[in-house]
Amino acid sequence: MKKYSNVMNTNVTWIPQIPAHWKLQKINALFTERKKKVSDKDYKPLSVTKKGILPQLAHAAKSNDSDNRKLVKAGDFVINSRSDRKGSCGVSKLDGSVSLINIVLTPRNELNSEYIHYLLRNYRFSEEYYRNGRGIVADLWTTRYSEMRTILIPVPPRAEQEQIVRFLDWKISEINKKRLLKKKSLELMRELISSTFEKLIHESHENVRLKRIVSLDNAFIDIVEDNYYQKAGMYNRARGIFLRNPIKGSDMGDSMFQRIYRNRLMISGQFAWEDAVYVTDKKDEDGLASHRYYLLKSQNIDAPVEYLFGYFISQKGLSDLQLCSHGSAGRNRPLNINELLRIEIPIVHNTVTIEKFCRLVQAYMKMRPIVLREAALLDELQNQLISDVVTGKIDVRNIPVPAYEHVDDLTADDGEGNDEETGIPGEED
Length: 429
Fold this sequence. Notes:
The chain is an alpha+beta fold. It is 31% helix and 21% strand. The two termini are 36 Å apart.
């Protein structure tokens, strides 16, 4: 893509160059801070997420002080001040209220709110924003408005802001179409597994309690403060696990941690009811799972781990996970592992049938990381494109935007790791 022919140096760390005709202005010259306190009885509660500003999520931890919140008006930019919520921000399309941990900014007239949405959500600004914060440890790092108000941001002419928005909306819709296709491919494969299992159990079968089939594999270890470890997190909808960046043992927190061995059925203790189940493989052995995850080892040749996985992503298996998960606080519904071990699951004593079914599950397991990796590459492409355009590395002024079908971000409900470390009591996502 074309670059701007005339640029100027800024001496600003996060944006060293901008087009010469753009302005560089402090945040406090472009926004006013909205500090008005309201009740969520008068203004509906909103959640500040990595996908933007949404009606309060069912799983969000609720504040005990519902009368002590900040007012948000449509068009305001809202950003979570905590570093553990990095990237949780956006321009609100709704009137409402947010918890006091959030900073609410009202843009002045020279700013297009959608341009601001793209600019202040890009990863370069995010790093600069949190660099200006303070705290004892990373999880308690906070950036206040008094610290961010002097951050310099680029401001193109208003007409150029609007063209940037049109261009990015178009390109991101195209990326979202590709995401949809990849998401559908996994969903179709999973539906095939579920329907195949339903047909399979119409054959002659025996109902056997799960505790007779599996053993609970708790390989807890002692954490050494100076050693580095990778925590495992888990996605919902049977989409696998991920390993976080290595951290020192001294930063691991108070949880107990267990080694992950291959060929285990891994179940989230918090989100099993959302089908957070997975079969571990060799690459996962670098990670540690907290005590809030359960690792089950098959002890029955008629119920290999792939068979168990297929069961739990079937309608009957998911129903069992939900029945054994209890709680009333949104998505916080812990799994009662003892109840789960007492459930009865169907076992088909037919080696050929089981092997065919397990091969289907294995195909899904091989396909899943490929699809997720491709989706991650699309995320990287999108993030880089947004960053390059809003910081003036790419000139889109004369690029015609064709008629296109608008497609929203289809990953909004995918969860970025629905593991126990993501929620902090008393605060919102």
